[in-house]
UniProtKB/TrEMBL annotation:
The protein's role, per its UniProt record: Modulates RecA activity.
InterPro entries: RecX_HTH_1st, RecX_HTH_2nd, RecX_HTH_3rd, Regulatory_RecX, WH-like_DNA-bd_sf
Ranges where the RecX second three-helical domain occurs: 81-115
Subcellular location(s) per record: Cytoplasm
Lineage of the species this protein comes from: Bacteria, Pseudomonadati, Pseudomonadota, Betaproteobacteria, Burkholderiales
Any GO BP: regulation of DNA repair
Name the UniProt record assigns to this protein: Regulatory protein RecX
Organism: Pusillimonas minor
Gene (UniProt): recX
């Protein structure tokens, strides 16, 4: 993505490569330097790093990207498990299990890791949803309109309908 904070690397002028070996056309930092720059800002999944680094790959050596990513994993600079835990830490206090799991899958985290994290999140979903509700509202809804508003708010954060009913009670209480 052009103009993103992750692409703030110094670019060399097109003629700055004069004197290089013929056939080498890369400008700017190496793939490994770019990857380390991305990882220094926050954890990234392997798939995410691959997507970000692909435009900077040397077209004459497409396997270079795989070699760099393998090296980063070998040296423990990149870890999908660490990325998953980081994402859970950032998102779980505000979002439900469904949203966090969807984001993990979108970033290419392995299904086994996603299933384990989903089980952990489900075990604490009521407490997390209650804390989100308490911060936003703090008081039970006074009428059915307010009930619907609070339900929509929590549902938009990815909390399950069963959890919402536990926190807010049934709509029947507000229709009487």
């Amino acid at each position: 993505m052009a103009g993103s904070p992750d692409d703030d690397f110094e670019q060399l002028a097109p003629d700055a490569g004069a004197g290089r070996r013929p056939g080498v056309s890369r400008q700017g930092p190496s793939l490994k330097a770019r990857a380390i720059g991305y990882l220094s800002r926050r954890e990234h999944s392997r798939a995410e790093l691959q997507r970000k680094l692909a435009p900077h790959t040397n077209p004459d050596d497409p396997a270079e990207l795989t070699r760099v990513l393998d090296e980063l994993e070998r040296e423990k600079w990149q870890s999908n498990q660490r990325f998953a835990q980081s994402l859970v830490h950032r998102r779980a206090s505000k979002k439900g299990a469904a949203v966090v799991v969807q984001e993990l899958r979108r970033h290419g985290v392995a299904d086994d890791d996603v299933a384990a994290i989903h089980d952990q999140l489900k075990a604490t979903e009521y407490d997390r949803a209650k804390a989100v509700w308490q911060r936003k509202f703090g008081a039970p809804p006074a009428d059915s309109k307010e009930y619907a508003r609070q339900m929509r708010f929590l549902a938009s954060r990815g909390f399950s309908p069963a959890i919402l009913r536990q926190i807010l009670g049934d709509l029947d209480d507000f229709l009487e």
